[in-house]
Each structure stands twice: as C-alpha cells, then as structure tokens.
UniProtKB/TrEMBL annotation:
It is an enzyme of class 3 (hydrolase). The lineage of its organism: Bacteria, Bacillati, Actinomycetota, Actinomycetes, Streptosporangiales. Belongs to the peptidase M7 family. Zn(2+) binds at residues 128, 132, 138. Residues 1-29 form the signal peptide. Its cofactor is Ca(2+); Zn(2+). It catalyses: Hydrolyzes proteins with a preference for Tyr or Phe in the P1' position. Has no action on amino-acid p-nitroanilides. GO terms for molecular function: metalloendopeptidase activity; zinc ion binding. Coiled coil: none annotated. This is Extracellular small neutral protease.
C-alpha cells in the first residue's frame, strides 16, 4: 500500500506533462486503478472562440462524442493551448477537414449558417462535423439513425448520436500507438444537400 501511494505523485506528474505537451492520457491515470481504455484516451483540444452563435451547439456536439467513445476525449483548449480542432462560424454550408486529427495536427470545422437557415439542427451539425474531424466520412444517402448521413436525413432529423458502426470506427481510429497511425486526410467535406 505504501508503494502505491508513493507512485501517485509520479503518475500525476507524468499525466500532467503528457497533457501539457498534447499527450495521450487523461486524469484517470493519476487517480489510480481505472478503466484501461480511459487511461489511454487521446485528448484533443478544440477552439470554439470563433464559433459565434454556435458555441452552445458545439459544446453539445462535443459532449455527444465524449459520452459515446472512450479512447478519444475532446476538451476546450485553455488560453495559450494549441487546438487540434478549430471551429469557425461561416455563412456557407457546414463543412470540415477529414481527420482523424492527431495531437500536434490541426483540422477545421466550419459551422455553416446556410445549413441552419435551411432548417438543419445545429447540434446534429456540430456532432456530424466533429465526426469528420475524428475521421468519419459522409454516409450519403443515409437514414437519420446515421449521424454521418448529414443533410440526406432531412431537416426533421435531430439525431446527434453516432450509431454503433460510427462509434466503432472512431474507437479504431484512436486505438493503439498514435505514432503508427496515418495523419488526418485533410480534404474539406462540404455537407450541402
């Protein structure tokens, strides 16, 4: 028992250092035994400072992903922290760079006002575009049960939760050693109907 207590400060310091430099750990590692998947989650920082009226929709979309996958965790970037996902408000259609983004990399999400003006749900848009950042392509045409079906599910669809296949693909994108994974694709995917 004494040995475990003496290791906690070292574990906490290591976790803090990895988080500071864009590492791949979460606070769970500093508190002792926990879910092994959570202990190795990749932390990705997002910057919503330019998301204008979409900040609450972005926060809800982030929460959707944090609630539905375990080996990647999205966190708002504190002042001075470089973000891997930069979120901007735009007047066009929603769009995003295709990931999966890695610590040290960067992609952009454009929360398009045109999509909202056409009647699409802002939280679904945010979760969908963040899905692109995490490496998910569009699945078009598709049903409302598929988050990545985007606009083809219609304006009445408000489902912002990824289905089992989409969750599994994101989990696979962030499993294993990041050094052996491909970087973000980078293509811009525009989600117009």
């Amino acid at each position: 028992m004494l040995r475990r207590r003496s290791l906690r400060p070292l574990i906490a310091a290591t976790a803090a250092a990895l988080a500071l430099f864009g590492g791949t750990t979460t606070a769970a590692a500093a508190t002792g035994p926990a879910d092994p998947a959570a202990a190795q989650a990749t932390t990705l920082y997002y910057d919503d400072s330019q998301a204008a009226e979409f900040r609450s929709a972005v926060a809800a979309g982030v929460q959707v992903w944090n609630d539905n996958v375990s080996n990647v965790h999205l966190v708002r970037a504190p002042a001075g922290q470089r973000a891997q996902i930069v979120i901007l408000a735009s007047d066009g259609w929603p769009q995003a760079n295709l990931g999966p983004v890695r610590p040290g990399g960067q992609v952009r999400v454009w929360m398009g006002r045109q999509g909202v003006e056409e009647g699409y749900d802002p939280v679904r848009i945010a979760a969908h575009e963040l899905g692109h950042s995490l490496g998910l392509p569009d699945i078009k045409p598709g049903p409302c049960s598929s988050l990545m079906s985007g606009s083809t599910a219609g304006t009445s669809c408000t489902n912002a939760v990824p289905n089992a296949t989409e969750r599994a693909r994101v989990e696979a994108n962030y499993s294993g050693t990041l050094a052996h994974r491909e970087p973000a694709d980078g293509r811009v995917l525009v989600d117009a109907p």
